[in-house]
Amino acid sequence: MSLPTTGRAWHLTARPNGWPTPEDFALREESVAAPTSGQILVRNAVLSVDPYMRGRMNDVKSYVPPFRLDHPMEGGAVGVVVASEAEGFAVGDHVLHFLGWREYATLDAAHAQKVSADLAPLSTYLGVMGMPGLTAYAGLLDVASFQEGDAVFVSGAAGAVGSQVGQIARIKGASRVIGSAGSPEKVKLLTEEYGFDAAFNYKDGPVAEQLRAAAPEGIDVYFDNVGGDHLEAAIGSLKVHGRATLCGAIAQYNDTEAAPGPRNLALAIGKRLRLTGMLVNDHQKLMPRFLEETAGWIASGELKYHETTSEGIESAVDAFLGMLRGRNTGKMIVRLAD
């Protein structure tokens, strides 16, 4: 079989000012390199679009370098090996890697992880069995030091990370699990399918008031995917020695000016709160335990997940922009091929 010599890839062509627009991106044809020693060539099957990618579009120093203009963007992807010059990787193997946003990727095999389509659908390695799932697992159990009997509040609770946080808390014996989401349909999903004890639509009124009504005795743990008024509300509801995992702040990612901090941050002193930022890459040591437990929960039906799928590489930017505006339920996936 002849190897591909060209493929399409999405480039960032301008730094967004506020909300990104389709005009900030371009889908371009580019050459595909044949693998050299230690490398593999992968035909991508499913791509991931994630909130953190918005930060990489800004030219600022951060924990991960910004995307380069007029170069292919990067992100999680699963594909099939179509050529291999690396020991341990054969044509036909499925791999997880981080050269997404393109049809074909040539990379060092050391930066790829073999996955099995027989164990789980390939898309799950980008979501429930992948980086978002590990984020939820580590952020709740390790960073927030979750204990049986804790009352837990999760913002962005219908998303890929938040939905898993709430379910893990329930499985591990939380006394109460509360979630916020952005539509009546998502609120219903949280309580009727994911097993949250209470949920509310943050668009229906002040978050602090709705959280107090849902958790009148307060909360022990807050998992923050949103920031802004949600973090302020959680600080108000956290009990003494409460813990918060600061995972994301999607409400602020597209602000053109710095957002003010929570107005009630002084409460953290008297309550002796612990507010801890997290990056999932710090918790790779938990991966084996995470995979084992999560696979078991999925098999038993204790943990459920949803994916929102967009078809074709042409749809990747629309999928990304839709995800930023909350149009997904669960993990947003772009499917290229089987």
Give the SSE order as H and E letters.
Answer: EEEHEEEEHEHEHEHEHEHEHEHE
> Approximately what portion of the residues adopt beta-strand conformation?
25-35%
Helix content: 10-25%
Number of helices: 9
Provide a concise account of the structure shown:
The protein is of the alpha/beta class. Helix content is 25%, strand content 26%.
Structural commentary:
With about 350 residues, this protein is an alpha/beta fold. The protein has 9 helices and 15 strands. The strands form 3 sheets. Strands 3, 4, 5, 6, 7, 14 and 15 form a 7-stranded mixed sheet that branches. Helix 2 packs across helix 3.
Show the helix and strand layout.
Layout (H helix, E strand, L loop, with lengths): L5 E7 L12 E7 L7 E10 L3 H4 L21 E8 L9 E4 L6 E5 L4 E3 L15 H13 L7 E4 L5 H12 L4 E6 L2 H9 L5 E4 L5 H8 L4 E6 L3 H10 E9 L20 H4 L3 E4 L9 H14 L6 E5 L4 H9 L6 E5 L3
Parallel strand pairs: 8-9, 8-11, 9-10, 11-12, 12-13, 14-15
Antiparallel strand pairs: 1-2, 3-4, 3-6, 3-15, 4-5, 5-7
Helix pairs in contact: 2-3, 2-8, 5-6
